[in-house]
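Tokens in:
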């Protein structure tokens, strides 16, 4: 009985094996070739897992991709001769970027400037943007680093790798290339699709910065977004950006701009600016996105970006390429400001003191303008000496204004007097004044540059002492007062012939007006104007001696 049972089981098994072999032979002979049998797994309680599918064109998984393992965020230290930075593996953004050569304030106890300028909370600049990936992946992915610290010497180049992948086979790798003598960081983000599904993504990154002063509320300094659109460079204030008036087209590069520092991004392909939002009370955040990409199984895509985190110094900016030096804006009189900065830098190599350099620059400018100043003063002296004759003409032609003007102009022509020559030196100095003002405001070389005694920052108003008046703190500044006094003395030495009483009263108030106006100006600019006035007083003294030799008509 047992033997018969065993024999029946063996025969049944042989029949099943033979039948299976027959089915496989039939399936292979059918159109479409061999098919795989899908494996069905029992879903976990409360979670429905999508069954693995056969790869098909246009197929995109709907459920989220699952990270391979759970990692904890780590902090990576990057140190070069130029900066010390910390990088988080949670998103791959920089949490700090301290510039070793730029203190946050003048004097003792200063710390390196953190060019990111924000606190310890995300979003961090240059972290990966994953909000538009389909199928969905975690918004805050945590990478696995190839190293926990990167240290470079002068001239060295090193690369750090951060990697992340899912159980389904979708991988992201970020390669950071650091340079020992540059503020440029090259970030390549590689997307690899080794899954069975199409991956729909919009490659991009986050960019954010809190404005770095020293005066966060400085209304004369631009802060916001600088963007290169084709061959044009445009600037967008935060107010415009928040109102949707930012770049409407793809841009070549962007930079978050503050007074002396900038964070920039130059993508390998045109990108657009989206999701602009404020950060804190004085910061800006945005997402930088390229075109949508659909990766088929087995395909990959690399987004290359050249990033800049550093000072707005022309030599350093030039290393980023693609005209990134345009971030440094000297305004309308930039064609004058740039040579002035170059002269100051060359002079500083000898003197080591930008205050002395400004004085030397002022002397140079006065020498260049001296021929015109001399001619102007002689012309003004002639006009003063002609006043008795002009008064007689005014009495003679008091009822005929046209004839009076004609006679006065003939008188000026006879003695070769240009009525406008008196104000020409001042008019010509106005562009230099505004150019130097912009240079002091923008040129990082002058940031925290000391002069002497209490003047420890030529790019900011001097601070000698404060007075507390009924709860209001009023700063006392000596340079603007000296400038006003020198202007008053210069004015008293200048010929005032030809001025009507109203014009003369206005001129009398000019020293006071200029003193008030210069009260909040950078001390370097006030120093320039003070030295300019002192030299002008000396010039006028010698010109007055020369003017006495000029022969004038008889006043009888």
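Residues out:
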């Amino acid at each position: 009985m047992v033997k018969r049972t065993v024999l029946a089981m063996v025969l049944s098994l042989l029949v099943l094996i033979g039948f299976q072999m027959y089915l496989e032979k039939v399936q292979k002979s059918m159109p479409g070739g061999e098919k795989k049998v899908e494996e069905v797994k029992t879903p976990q309680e409360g979670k429905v897992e999508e069954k693995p599918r056969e790869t098909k064109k246009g197929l995109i998984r709907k459920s989220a991709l699952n990270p391979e393992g759970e990692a904890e965020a780590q902090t990576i230290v990057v140190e070069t001769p130029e900066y010390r930075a910390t990088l988080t593996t949670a998103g791959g953004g920089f949490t700090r970027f301290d510039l070793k050569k730029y203190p946050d304030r003048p004097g003792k106890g200063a710390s390196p400037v953190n060019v990111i300028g924000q606190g310890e909370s995300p979003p961090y600049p240059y972290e990966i943007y994953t909000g538009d990936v389909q199928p969905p992946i975690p918004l805050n992915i945590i990478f696995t680093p190839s190293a926990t610290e990167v240290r470079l010497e002068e001239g060295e180049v090193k690369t750090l790798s951060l990697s992340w992948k899912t159980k389904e086979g979708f991988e992201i790798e970020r390669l950071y290339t650091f340079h020992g003598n540059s503020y440029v960081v090259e970030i390549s983000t590689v997307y690899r699709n080794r899954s069975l599904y199409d991956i729909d993504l919009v490659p991009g990154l986050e960019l954010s910065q809190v404005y770095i002063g020293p005066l966060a509320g400085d209304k004369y300094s631009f802060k916001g977004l600088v963007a290169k659109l084709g061959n044009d460079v445009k600037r967008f204030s935060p107010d415009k950006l928040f109102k949707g008036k930012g770049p409407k087209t793809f841009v070549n590069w962007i930079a978050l701009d503050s007074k002396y520092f900038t964070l920039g991004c130059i993508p390998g392909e045109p990108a657009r600016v989206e999701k602009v939002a404020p950060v804190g009370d004085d910061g800006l955040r945005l997402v930088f996105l390229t075109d949508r990409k659909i990766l088929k199984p087995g395909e990959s895509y690399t987004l290359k970006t050249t990033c800049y985190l550093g000072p707005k110094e022309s030599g350093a900016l030039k290393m980023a390429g693609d005209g990134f030096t345009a971030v440094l804006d000297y305004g309308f009189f930039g064609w004058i400001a740039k040579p002035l900065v170059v002269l100051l830098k060359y002079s500083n190599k000898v003197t080591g003191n930008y205050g002395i350099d400004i004085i030397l620059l002022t002397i140079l400018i006065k020498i260049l303008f001296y021929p015109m100043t001399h001619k102007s003063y002689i012309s003004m002296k002639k006009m003063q000496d002609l006043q008795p004759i002009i008064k007689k003409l005014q009495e003679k032609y008091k009822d005929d204004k046209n004839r009076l003007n004609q006679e006065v102009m003939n008188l000026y022509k006879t003695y070769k007097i240009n009525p406008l020559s008196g104000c020409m030196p001042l008019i010509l100095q106005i562009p230099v004044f505004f150019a130097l003002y912009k240079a002091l405001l923008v040129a990082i070389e002058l940031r925290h540059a000391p002069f002497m005694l209490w003047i420890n920052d030529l790019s900011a108003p001097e601070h000698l002492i404060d007075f507390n008046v009924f709860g209001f703190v009023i700063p006392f500044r000596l340079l603007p007062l000296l400038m006003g006094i020198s202007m008053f003395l210069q004015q008293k030495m200048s010929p005032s012939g030809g001025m009507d009483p109203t014009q003369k009263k206005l001129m009398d108030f000019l020293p006071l007006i200029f003193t008030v106006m210069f009260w909040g100006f950078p001390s370097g600019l006030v120093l320039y104007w003070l030295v300019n006035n002192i030299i002008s007083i000396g010039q006028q003294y010698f010109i007055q001696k020369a003017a006495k030799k000029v022969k004038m008509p008889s006043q009888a």
